[in-house]
Amino acid sequence: MTQSTTRSEALFDRARAVTPGGVNSPVRAFGGVGGVPRFIERAEGPWLTDVDGNRYVDLICSWGPMILGHAHPDVLAAVTDAARRGFSFGTPSEGEVALAAEVVDRVEPLEQVRLVSSGTEATMSALRLARGVTGRSVIVKFAGCYHGHVDALLAQAGSGVATFALPDSAGVPASAAGETVVLPYNDLAAVEELFAARGQEIAAVITEASPGNMGIVPPGPGFTEGLRRVTAAHGALLISDEVMTGFRSSRSGWYGHETGPDGAHPGGYEGGAPDLFTFGKVMGGGFPAAAFGGRADLMARLAPEGPVYQAGTLSGNPVATAAGLATLRACTPQLYPRLEATATRIADAASAALSAEGVAHRVQWAGSMFSVFFREGQVRSFDDAQQQDTAAYGRFFQAMLEGGVHLPPSAFEAWFVSGAHDEEALETILDALPAAAKAASA
Ligand SMILES: *Cc1c(COP(=O)(O)O)cnc(C)c1O
Fold first, then answer.
1. What amino acid positions are annotated as catalytic residues?
2. For residue range 242-260, what is the model confidence (pLDDT) as tens digits?
3. The whole model's pTM is what?
4. Overall fold of domain 5-67+333-441
5. Which residues are registered as beta bridge partners of 44?
């Protein structure tokens, strides 16, 4: 059966007339996989329905936020109730206090957070705070880590130690990119060498808590701990970007995932917690709510208490904070084992189907998050991640779509599941896999 895509095609044509590339975020254009992006009309639980009436199991989940599935009744009720009481006040309101308290309560080192509207705003503001606190300007990031479209953080190229990166994007001035040093992920020696040479200039190291934007590439043993040790020794801050992992890889994000039952941190925080954290995605429940936070003494440097300015007309928006709070409250300790079980079944089945067709692949995990690389062997860095067969992924993606499963339209993304992925959704995925694996091998 071939799906009709007539209406999506017509909408994509209209979209391209009024919006660059027809989309409001580049990866949605299907450039990495080919074909027509599906215009979604509605979504419920694990299902997306497009404008042509095709139904897909959703493995994007809005790139993370829809951890409970679409239109979850508790969240819908909270949003409806909030909207009835007004959309935006531009004054303090109780919902923002409750959401901030929930976030602070979940991530042990956090004392205060400031709410913003996107992950990009969170990382941008965290960098400004780090520079304001330290009086230094250089930022260190890792190749393959995405922190939103912040000028200083779009630099990804150049993995050499102490080389100034060139901007990846036109429109980023050399002066902005020139304050950013990009190092290879999981290469602590490169970090140590850079700090030995230029430690006094570095305001902060920012890292994805467990990278998920080049596919899932968890920190190797001792890497995060090493970052903490080196930054602390040189008076630089460590910023842990949990926009993707926050409240998804565990109840307390990657930080909580790395906390053992006895409170020990087997995976990287023995040397102490990061100074600042950033959050987004899940904490907005599908609405624009994000945050950055850390110790109270650092956060006190923000206006109105301190000299680092940061603000937002819609920050702490009552509808968004209601959605975020209802979502986090439904993210109970019971949810995460279920997500992990669902993810494991999907990953195992995908792996078996690909193996049966002789397609080289590797599955990597970060708590309940996983991704499938179309290559063999451990992936520890962006260089490793790039050495995969993206054309095979494109064929796999198209066949899964035809089989009623909407994967992320890029080989460099996690596959996101939700608490609403039930037996019917799983069966649909399992049924689609053999043909998709065959297509990938072709
Ligand atoms: C998605 C993401 C961002 C950017 O968040 P937006 O809400 O898209 O601006 C930043 N950091 C990480 C790790 C992300 O996954």
1. 146, 241, 281
2. 999 999 988 999 988 765 5
3. 0.95
4. Aspartate Aminotransferase, domain 1 (3.90.1150)
5. 47
